[in-house]
Design goal:
It is built from 8 helices and 14 strands. It is α/β, with parallel strands linked by helices. The strands form 3 sheets. A 7-stranded antiparallel beta sheet has the order 6-5-9-3-4-8-7. A 5-stranded parallel beta sheet has the order 12-11-10-13-14, sandwiched between helices. The termini are far apart.
């Protein structure tokens, strides 16, 4: 047999073995109960969850994702280590007859539909077009099984016509869908590239491949704790900014903080979350909202300064989310008007 062919067959066989191993591990995680198990005879048992499955090196998409799937695996290992330590501590307390706080199923190791280490299929319920060159996907998931904390996003993988796969980050927004259920809404700006062409072909009933949650380095609590928090969004960057606002809205520590949102879009139709942000304003008395539409009033340093002229900018914090050049320009402008601390989403 040709050595190259033999090597290929060996690689395929090993890949099948790894896939079967992962399938068995997933079944075990889905059915087993971990932690402190109370037996019928009155005894207690400590059952520790297995460690996360290590991804293969070729599972990395080499697109410079932050974090990489290999980084996420290291985080999962640390989480598993801490979880096992918590179970061990509570087990010792239970043996000593003391009250315990952990005797649960493996809920802390699961995120429902989402998994940060593997891509999963999620069905598209509905597709809308808020404006030209865009799509709004409503996914068949709920707030109970599609769990994202503030500052977290997902990765979507698309299969290109040439057989290659491409992965990019997106931030879903949890909104009430037409059926009255809160579901993830995914706003996608379409560009002249292969990924956009692939996403544009999607129809209701199709599936998207996604993984998550993926953590970011942005510290929202630090930004919201400042005397003034400025949130600047360019285009579809309003999605993670709106996610941050939802976090502030349900948190009594930040709900009454001074916040200014500046939303830049190509046209009025692209301001697809404006009505919801205005709705939040009714319950957040110190939230200001400014919009800038490219064909009438493009954001500039002078307009940014004008929007923030009446605020005390000493020790202010900023969060910026948009295309690369937009982030660079806005960060520079913020620095020029005295806001030295800007985090990029």
């Amino acid at each position: 047999m040709n050595p190259a062919v033999e090597k290929l067959l060996q690689d395929i066989a090993q890949a099948k073995l790894r896939a079967e191993k992962r399938r068995r591990q997933k079944e075990e995680l889905d059915t087993q109960t971990y932690g402190i198990i109370h037996q019928d005879d009155g005894t207690i048992e400590l059952r520790l969850p297995p460690p996360p499955t290590k991804p293969d090196p070729d599972e990395c998409c080499h697109s410079g994702c932050t974090p990489c799937i290999l980084d996420t695996y290291q985080e999962q290992l640390e989480e598993h280590k801490q979880l096992c330590a918590d179970f061990q501590q509570q087990y010792q307390r239970a043996k000593a007859g003391k009250p315990t706080s952990i005797q649960t199923k493996n809920d802390r190791m699961s995120c429902g539909i989402l998994n940060p280490l593997e891509f999963r299929k999620v069905r598209i319920l509905h597709i809308d077009q808020p404006c030209m060159h865009s799509r709004l996907l409503v996914l068949e998931a709920t707030a109970l099984n599609f769990i994202l904390a503030h500052g977290e996003h997902i990765h979507i993988r698309a299969l290109l016509p040439n057989g290659n796969r491409i992965t990019r980050p997106f931030t879903p927004v949890m909104l009430e869908a037409e059926d009255g259920i809160v579901r993830p809404h995914l706003f996608i700006r379409l560009y002249d590239n292969e990924l956009s062409a692939s996403l544009e072909r999607l129809q209701a009933g199709d599936h998207v491949m996604l993984r998550g949650p993926i953590r970011t380095h942005v510290d929202l609590t630090h930004a919201f704790s400042s005397n003034l928090c400025v949130l600047v969004a360019g285009g579809s960057g309003i999605a993670p900014i709106f996610q941050a606002l939802q976090f502030a809205h349900i948190n009594s520590s930040y709900k009454n903080k001074q916040m200014v949102v500046l939303h830049c879009a190509r046209n009025e139709q692209a301001l697809w979350l404006s009505s919801l942000i205005k709705h939040l304003q009714a319950d957040m008395p110190h939230l200001a909202y400014h919009t800038f539409v490219s064909h009438t009033q493009r954001l500039s340093e002078s307009l940014l300064h004008q929007a923030l002229a009446d605020y005390n900018r000493e020790n202010a914090q900023a969060i910026v989310c948009g295309p690369g050049t937009f982030n660079e320009d806005v960060s520079c402008w913020l620095n020029n008007i005295g806001i030295k601390h800007a985090q990029l989403l």
